[in-house]
Amino acid sequence: MNDKSGKRRKFGIDEIIMGLLLLIMATIAFINVLGRYIFHYSLAFTEEIGVNFFVWVTVIGIGIAFERGANLGMVSIFKMFPKSVKRIVLWLNLALSAFLFGVVDWFTIKTIYDEITMFHSTSPALGIQMWIYYIGVPIFSIFVFIRMWQGHVKALNKLKEEK
What we know:
Blueprint: H1 13-38, H2 44-68, H3 75-80, H4 83-119, H5 130-134, H6 136-161
Helix pairs in contact: 1-2, 2-6, 4-6
């Protein structure tokens, strides 16, 4: 794939993981559809894996959106601010976004701890410990924090280039 300058773009590890997860999700969904229409038998585990992988793909996608500046923002209002206020708003955006994902990770890790130590609940179709599905959120949030910082640096550099 080529970027805007025409150079061949390398994919990040998070983009590769997301692509593999999407490939697995599409494959198991296709197998489930075939199973239903050919054998008249639905594979319950495909929904379980699909839903949990979807959460992981969403977390990774959030990081990629931060890096590309594709997350929600109030661009019209932001453009009205003077350059000094824009810089403060960018730092505030980074701080609040990092705080949000810190809170998400905190509660997810707390839930994982509870699952490992107290509840020992398993998934209905495959009998996998639920904490294994939950662990993807804090792990893939690492990519969110990295991409969040990369997007912030890009935005600051773009702001420096403004007249």
